[in-house]
Design goal:
Elements: H1 3-17, E1 22-27, H2 34-43, H3 57-61, E2 72-79, E3 92-93, H4 102-120, E4 126-129, H5 137-143, E5 148-149, E6 155-156, E7 164-171, H6 191-195, E8 201-202, E9 206-207, H7 213-219, E10 235-237, H8 241-244, H9 264-268, H10 271-275, H11 279-285, H12 295-307
Parallel strand pairs: 3-10
Antiparallel strand pairs: 1-2, 2-7, 4-7, 5-6, 8-9
Keywords: 4Fe-4S, Cobalamin, Cobalt, Cytoplasm, Iron, Iron-sulfur, Metal-binding, Oxidoreductase, Queuosine biosynthesis, tRNA processing
Cofactor: cob(II)alamin; [4Fe-4S] cluster
Binding site for [4Fe-4S] cluster 1: 186, 189, 192, 246
């Protein structure tokens, strides 16, 4: 076994010890195949009012512009599939937001992994990324062999489904690289396309982000367009429809991350409870939660839009 392979094996073992589902490694280089796709997606205005998607175009495609001398992109997945869900017939939030904000939980683990690399292998420079920087995480996950991009644009793993977060560690250390995931196992299935309440998933395996309920309830700061009346299916923060109908998610297993455990109050709240929501209850139920991104006023806006 050569040195790079030994390093890669050590990193993957430590990632598993830290609770990551999977870990794959790819060479840090320009994402040539992604460039025209990203350009076309932006030209079609599928990013809606997410102006930040237009920024740092080059950095999104080349991690060497994010980390000087970058040699490797370590991609990791972290399970968030819950053992309990909200009661039937209430306003819904995406399962990923049930517990504490994943950005902080996973970034702490990435920092531990980076520290391990420095302690065990030697001093390396690198940066941790959790859905908060110009990194095309699904492209890197596919390139490092973690899974394939489904028609809903989310990464799917055969044994896990798609209810997991992706994260990256970009470092200036050469490692042994995994084979890209080449086979798309969606086949002729169109369940996610057919089930999307707002027709945001297009037949050409592209998502029009400006129509996605997650965008409308989280990213969009203006009033939700009236064309989406009667189409929200009671989703007040994010949406899981495309994942809930995906056949591969029958393999999803509940996570064992205590920080992702939801407040019991959240699971039990009725539509009436949500309609009577106060700032105090919001702060208590969503303490340290990603739902704080939309703020109390944003959640109230979403609830009022759905019920009116």
């Amino acid at each position: 076994m050569n040195r790079q392979q030994h390093y890669s094996n050590s990193i993957k073992k430590q990632a598993a010890r830290l609770g990551f589902l999977d870990c794959g490694i790819a060479k840090a280089e320009f994402l040539e195949a992604e460039a025209p796709r990203l350009e076309q997606w932006l030209q079609n205005d599928y990013h809606g009012k997410m102006q930040y998607m237009e920024n740092h175009f080059d950095k999104r495609l080349d991690p060497r512009l994010l980390v000087e001398g970058a040699k490797s992109v370590i991609s990791l997945s972290y399970n968030y599939f819950p053992s309990e869900v909200q009661q039937e017939g209430t306003y819904k939030i995406s399962k990923y937001a049930y517990g504490q904000d994943y950005h902080h939980v996973i970034k702490d683990k990435l920092r531990e992994l980076l520290q391990f690399i420095n302690d065990e292998i030697g001093e390396v420079s690198g940066r941790c990324f959790v859905d908060s920087a110009p990194v095309l995480e699904r492209a890197w996950a596919e390139k490092s062999g973690l899974g394939w991009n489904g028609k809903h644009s989310l990464l799917i793993q055969k044994q896990q489904g798609s209810f997991f977060f992706l994260a990256e560690l970009v470092i200036d250390l050469e490692l042994a690289y995994d084979e890209p995931f080449k086979t798309n196992h969606c086949g002729s299935c169109t369940r996610c396309i057919d089930a999307c309440p707002t027709q945001a998933i297009l037949p050409n395996n592209t998502v029009d982000g400006s129509k996605c309920i997650s965008y409308l309830t989280i990213e969009l700061k203006d009033a939700i367009p009236t064309t989406f009346k009667e189409k929200m299916e009671d989703w007040m923060f994010g949406c899981d429809v495309c994942q809930d109908v995906c056949p591969w998610n029958r393999f999803s297993k509940p996570h064992n991350e205590p920080l992702f455990a939801p407040q019991q109050e959240l699971l039990e709240m009725t539509k009436h409870d949500w309609q009577e929501l106060t700032q105090e209850t919001f702060s208590r139920v969503f303490k340290k939660s990603a739902v704080k991104r939309t703020k109390f006023s944003g959640l109230v806006r979403n609830i009022n839009f759905i019920k009116s």
